[in-house]
Amino acid sequence: MSSMDAAKSRISIRLNQQQLELIDRTLKGGLAESREELLHLALKEYAAKREGAARG
Asked: Which of 13, 10, 32 is nearest to 23 (CA)?
């Protein structure tokens, strides 16, 4: 089953104004179509980097 097929849960996070502005500027740059999509991409990238670091 792919990650896109997995059941989704809603979460809330607290961001300061600077973090929110960074997200919105990144969206205007075309990296993702929504805040949700951008956060999914960021989490996937973070997990991939951690996995790579764990492998040595």
From this structure: 32
